[in-house]
Each structure stands twice: as C-alpha cells, then as structure tokens.
Amino acid sequence: MTVMWLTSRNTTGWVEYGEVGSALKQAADSHHGLIDANERIHRVTLNGLKPGSAYRYKVLSRDILSFGGTKLQYGKTVSSGEFEFRTFDRGKREFSFLVFNDIHQNESVLPDMLAAAGSEPYDFVLLNGDILSQISDEGQITGILDSAVKLFASRIPLIWTRGNHETRGPYARMLPKYIALPSDSFYYSFNHGPAHFTVLDTGEDKADSDVEYGGLADFERYRRQEREWLAGEVRTPEYRNARYRITISHMPFPEATGRWSGMENAFQNFGELLNGAAPDVMIAAHKHVAAVVKPEPGARHNYPIVRGGGPTPENRTVIRVRVKPGLMNAEILRNGGEVFARWEVRKP
Fold it and tell me: Is the dihedral of CA 108, 198, 44, 124 positive or negative?
C-alpha cells in the first residue's frame, strides 16, 4: 500500500502503521541511501503487508528549520488522525469496485456519484480518466484528491487511470508526482481476488502532429513501448491463470472512427494483442455516452466493452463491477442509482 499526503511547506515525513490491534511501527521512503526530506509531496510505500488484513495508520511530518551539511535543526511535528485500510487479497472469493470517469474537474459531483452507487461495500475506486479537463496548476489535482480523501480515499484505495485530457496543460507532466504508480508507469497490472487487472494508458485521441499539442506530443513512440510491455503482460502466469481478466482503458480504441487517429494508433498497437489474450471485459470511458458494446468476433474486439458516460447530469454514470467465483457482472448506474445497462459473464 502506498500512502500519500501533502504539507503546506517542505518537511520530512513518515507513516506509523500496524495491524489493527497491534502496536504501530514506523516507515519512511528513501532513495539512494537518503530518507526523503525537504518535500511537500510525501509518499511512503508499506511493504510486507499481509493480504486481506486491516491496518491502522497515521501520517506525520516534521519541520526542518536548518538543513546544514552536518547538523539538522528540527521544528515541530504534526500528525494526522488515525485511519484504517484493508490490503488486497488474491485469495478473496468475491468483491466489488466502482468506476468514475469524465467528470472534467467537477469534484462536487463525487458525493452524488457515491450515493448513486448505493450502500454496498466496495474494495477500491477507479478514476478512469478525464477527471480533469487539463492541468494548469497543482490546485486542480489536489481539488480532486482532497474530495476523494474526504469521501473514501483515506481508507479505500484510489486508482487513477490517465485520460487524454490529463495529458494537456502546462502542469500535466507533474501528475505522476501526486498519484502512486507501480514502477512509475501509467500502465501496469495488479491482482485482487479471482481477477487480474491490466491497466492501459491510451494517451491522446488525436495525432501527435495535431496543432493542439504544439509539437510536444510523442504518443506514437510511447504506445510502441507500451505494446512491448503488453505483449509480455498477457503471457504472464498471473494473466493466463486468472479466472477473470479485466482490461482498464480510458479510450475504447476498438471503437475508433474518423479523425481520431490517436485512438486508431492505440488499436494498431494493442488491438491484436488483446484479441489474442481474450479479456473478459474492457472497462472504458471517453465518449461521454454510456453503453455496453457487445463483442465482435473476427472484427476489432472479441470481448465486451462497458463504457461510462459523460460530465453532464443526464449523461453522468457510475459503474459498479462485482466479481464472484462463478459470476462477474457490471452495472452502469445513472444519477439516483437507476440501472442504465447491465453486463455479465458466468464461469462454472
């Protein structure tokens, strides 16, 4: 588990944590032999945790008044309250998770979206891209994160998939500093219960040469590099032996049409690999129109695509995915919890 927090000025920081009912111990991140310090953005990865276990934790930050070469003078230490989280567990038989997408900087809708999902527990929340419209400053990122923390993210893991709009703006290159990314990459995989998740980063929806990007886009090369990773990912035992295989992608690139050459380039790089790997479902977003797109065997995708809606109240959706030993299903929920569409796959 990676714990992240921000301070109002540069400090050093650490996490005190332990299983519920046990004593707390201390953890801090270090790089090249030096404990992280003189930072506002803090991240500590807690290793060696037991699967499916409840942990309590708090974060602490300490002022450094004088950062001399041989002697440091410390100021006061501030501490958060105490929170709890539960680790992922490959042995868990069933779970559910929520997917939000394309809210385009309107963090005020998050409480309503959670209310639409109902009171059923969920193990994590996925922000599947275009949570922001562009990134011009830190406040846009922290506005979303602060709202998420108040609602769930102090106790429920938050996973943020990059959308094409999060590649735009002068501060877009800073986004990786604010979210925990395995191996510092926007594409990766993880396991929970009987499911294996493959998270893709589809980049921009237009060509790198589009005037909108001012000559500063390089997604075609980026996707070729990602394709090499994906080719290895779908051959891993974790992927091949998973009961359920879930692909997460902001852009539903098998649906590319017309001038969206960035989506078409994503299809050229990932389409054949995914068709051969036979995921059970792709969870997608981007088009602002909710839908369950049926498989097209022999065409662009032989797997279903469950796609979330858009930022306006009439198009806004939450996707809830439930995973059980013999059944995986998804519901696309409108405001108020109305079920717009359902999809399911059964495995004996």
Answer: positive
pLDDT tens string 170-219: 999 999 999 999 989 999 999 999 999 999 999 999 999 998 888 999 99
Are the CB atoms for 132 and 174 separated by under 8 Å? Answer: no
Q: pTM of the prediction?
A: 0.96
What is the Cα–Cα distance from 290 to 309, expressed in whole angstroms?
Answer: 4
Cα separation of 74 and 53, whole Å?
Answer: 35
In terms of Cβ atoms closer than 10 Å to its own Cβ (0-12, 13-18, 19+), residue 273 is middle
pLDDT above 70 covers what percent of the chain? 99
Residue 334: C-alpha distances to residues 118, 121, 329 (Å): 11, 18, 17
β-partners of residue 21 are none
Lookup: tokens for 158: 């938050």
